[in-house]
């Protein structure tokens, strides 16, 4: 045996594969006492035959996974006109900055004295978001937008308990995101729907009929999911406040008013931000995410702990908040996402943030002008950051649905827009180009959708034609997923 050979390579042969052409595999020794396999594992867990492991070279492995990756759609490779979800391109610069060793190689259990740089970044994030929102205080702890909704409603519930008021109802427009009523129910409230008018705005008469001393919170998305800014938002806030309620803003569409209008200035009491939509950060895949919330001064005592505060001696985590609702997330939240957000805001500055919103609105209106002749728009000729088209006439005349159009777009390399939402529009296609796309991209998408709308109905109903899987039974797949690999699949 070579005396220079590392111990891990000089260990005895532990097992070998019996398949022809496979070499023996050596594993390093460990400190676990050697026992017969039957004493370590239940009989039913022991395989009758060695695993079928084929030896592959590194290029073969790399090519396998790269080829698999090309089957995925991503915003780095494809245009995502995904209404409401705001699937914009996020700068790689912010990814690199968030990965700097001084930020990445930290541990939340380190002494605060060794975390001063990160705490300074988080403290500045709190103040920047408060200024953007026009509100007094911010918690960075929630882990997603919907988590921010829930946290805000828990803050509202704590506030009402402290006042000795048993308010039980959260009012929500019928065009709202589905997470709104879910968050209300999880926070212990009863959700009640407020109707929309024909132009997609809040029906003030229906709102007035439902406001009473049980109204805790009115939740509104503004601009809303139809791409409309509510012009009577100050009047709505005044009416809710008159009965002692609070107004919550679902901040999913903040990229439409960023640097132009501050929610606190038009009457909002609580709100959340979606960093991945409004600023910069990973989007999709279930996380990691962040959903910071901002609140008025009187609600600040109820925010989650800890808060980052600045003393003469430096930054620290403040846990001494007796009215706080407590923790809603482990440690400080997803600080890596917050660092990306911080870098994005500092890069653009106040004027740049306003330009982001202006470009988002410009792109959406340009695409609406190109497509309103292909499919009718649900709410007129102007929009904010997104708009909704309807394929209801196309379905009635030719049997072509919004789903058919969405599936066919995949053949041209475009992700489908959001379909069948909001629920108040039949055969809805909800389209948001975001501020990061070029005019050339928007023109190519508009031309493609116009072409698709003229194609043979039977051909469209069988689309997509170029993907490995065409139209799976999504309900069956969700209820009866196949979780085991099968040879030949």
Could you explain the architecture of this structure?
This protein has helices at residues 37-40, 58-69, 92-98, 101-104, 116-133, 145-163, 179-186, 204-210, 233-242, 275-278, 335-371, 392-398, 402-409, 439-453, 457-461, 474-479; strands spanning 13-15, 25-26, 137-139, 169-173, 190-194, 215-221, 246-250, 270-272, 293-295, 307-311, 314-318, 387-390, 418-419, 428-431. Mean pLDDT is 90; it is low at 1-25. The strands form four sheets. A seven-stranded mixed beta sheet has the order 3-9-8-7-6-4-5, sandwiched between helices. The chain has a three-stranded antiparallel beta sheet with strand order 12-14-13. A two-stranded antiparallel sheet has the order 1-2. It is globular. By secondary structure, the protein is α/β, with parallel strands linked by helices. The protein folds into three domains: 1-69, no CATH class; 92-348, Type I PLP-dependent aspartate aminotransferase-like (Major domain) (Aspartate Aminotransferase, domain 2), CATH 3.40.640; 355-476, Aspartate Aminotransferase, domain 1 (Alpha-Beta Complex).
């Amino acid at each position: 045996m070579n005396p220079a050979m590392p111990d891990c390579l000089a260990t005895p042969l532990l097992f070998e594969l019996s398949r022809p052409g496979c070499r023996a595999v050596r594993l390093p020794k460990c400190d676990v006492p050697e026992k017969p396999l039957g004493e370590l594992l239940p009989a039913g867990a022991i395989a009758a035959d060695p695993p079928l492991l084929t030896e592959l070279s590194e290029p073969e492995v790399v090519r396998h996974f790269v080829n698999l990756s090309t089957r995925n759609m991503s915003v780095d490779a494809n245009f995502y006109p995904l209404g409401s979800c705001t699937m914009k391109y996020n700068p790689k610069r912010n990814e690199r900055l968030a990965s700097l060793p001084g930020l990445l190689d930290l541990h939340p259990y380190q002494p605060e004295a060794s975390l001063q740089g990160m705490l300074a970044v988080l403290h500045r994030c709190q103040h920047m978001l408060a200024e953007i929102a026009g509100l007094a205080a911010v918690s960075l702890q929630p882990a997603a937008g919907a988590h921010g909704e829930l946290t805000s409603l828990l803050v509202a519930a704590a506030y009402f308990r402290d006042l000795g008021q048993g308010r039980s109802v959260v009012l929500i427009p019928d065009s709202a995101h589905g997470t709104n009523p879910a968050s209300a129910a999880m926070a212990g409230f009863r959700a009640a729907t407020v109707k929309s008018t024909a132009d997609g705005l809040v029906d003030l008469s229906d709102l007035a009929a439902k406001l009473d001393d049980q109204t805790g919170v009115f939740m509104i998305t503004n601009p809303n999911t139809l791409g409309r800014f509510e012009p009577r938002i100050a009047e709505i806030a005044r009416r809710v406040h008159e009965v002692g309620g609070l107004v919550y803003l679902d901040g999913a569409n903040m990229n439409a008013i960023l640097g132009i209008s501050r929610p606190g200035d038009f009457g909002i009491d609580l709100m959340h931000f979606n960093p991945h939509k409004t600023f910069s950060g990973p989007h999709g895949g279930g996380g990691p995410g962040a959903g910071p919330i901002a609140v008025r001064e009187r609600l600040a005592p109820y925010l989650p702990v800890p808060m980052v505060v600045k003393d003469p001696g430096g930054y620290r985590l403040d846990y001494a908040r007796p009215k706080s609702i407590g923790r809603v997330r482990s440690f400080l939240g997803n600080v890596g996402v917050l660092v990306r957000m911080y870098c994005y805001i500092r890069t653009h500055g106040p004027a740049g943030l306003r330009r982001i919103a202006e470009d988002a609105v410009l792109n959406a209106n340009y695409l609406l002008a190109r497509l309103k002749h292909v499919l009718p728009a649900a709410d007129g000729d102007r929009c904010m950051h997104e708009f909704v088209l309807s394929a209801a006439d196309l379905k009635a005349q030719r049997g072509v649905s919004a789903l058919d159009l969405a599936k066919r777009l995949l053949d041209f390399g475009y992700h489908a827009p959001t379909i069948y939402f909001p629920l108040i529009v039949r055969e809805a296609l909800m389209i948001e180009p975001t501020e990061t796309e070029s005019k050339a991209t928007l023109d190519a998408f508009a031309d493609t959708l116009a072409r698709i709308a003229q194609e043979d109905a039977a051909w469209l109903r069988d689309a997509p034609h170029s993907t490995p899987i065409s139209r799976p039974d999504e309900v069956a797949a969700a209820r009866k997923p196949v979780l085991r690999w099968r040879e030949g699949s």
